[in-house]
Design brief:
The chain is mainly alpha-helical and about 220 residues long. It has helices at about 1-25, 45-55, 60-70, 80-95, 105-120, 130-145, 155-185, 195-215. The chain has one domain.
Length: about 220
């Protein structure tokens, strides 16, 4: 009993640590989605740092990566969810650089945060394979947005950028996955209430992002 109470308390600490900073950042003025304020990275170092910074400074991307990591804990082999997202985001960046248009990118990105937050909040979610497919579809649009930062970049800085954003997304999502897995009773066949609550919080962030798109 004491162990389960401690795990529940620890999980609440992890959840607060993930969500409170996100809400604080949402209150800040709009920022560039990467560290160089819109300038195309020229060197390998700039490309790598820009790749690391884009998914973190971009609150829509960060919220989705966090949600994907949390949602992964509720499925067997759940890490395939963030893996599918990261691989698809690479493809999305390449699509952008090939001048293939993906419509309503920001809308779909914001909608993906809302949708995955709701999946986390639901007691019974979609089958794991369906969530993996949806994560891949979301990754195409997130990656397409990432591509804007490296239009016209040379191949070395471009490759460093791809490595940067792929690495940081996997580190964040898998780190969250491993941390929460240690705290959640693996014998439970339903999502812990704490995870469902944070799903509502993250879906609220999705609503905020969508509102900002429509209201400016």
């Amino acid at each position: 009993m004491h162990i389960r109470s401690l795990n529940s308390f620890s999980l609440k600490i992890v959840i607060c640590g993930l969500t409170v900073p996100t809400f604080l950042l949402l209150g800040l003025p709009a920022m560039a989605h990467h560290p160089f304020g819109g300038d195309t990275p020229v060197t390998i170092i700039e490309g790598f740092l820009s790749g690391i910074g884009h998914p973190v400074i971009g609150l829509d991307h960060l919220a989705f990566v966090i949600t994907a990591g949390l949602l992964a804990t509720t499925f067997n082999r759940g890490l395939f969810i963030p893996v599918a997202f990261v691989l698809a985001s690479l493809a999305g960046t390449i699509i952008h650089l090939l001048n293939v248009n993906l419509p309503m990118t920001e809308f779909v990105i914001s909608l993906s945060v809302l949708g995955f937050g709701l999946l986390l909040a639901m007691k019974d979610s979609l089958p794991g394979r369906a969530v993996i497919v949806l994560a891949g579809m979301a990754g195409l649009f997130h990656g397409y947005a990432y591509g804007e930062a490296v239009v016209g970049a040379g191949m070395p800085s471009l490759l460093a950028y791809l490595i940067g954003f792929s690495t940081i997304q996997m580190v964040i999502s898998s780190g969250i996955y491993l941390a929460v897995k240690k705290l959640v009773n693996r014998d439970d066949d339903v999502k812990p209430l704490n995870l469902r609550f944070v799903g509502l919080v993250l879906s609220g962030i999705g609503v905020t992002l969508l509102s900002n798109l429509f209201l400016g």
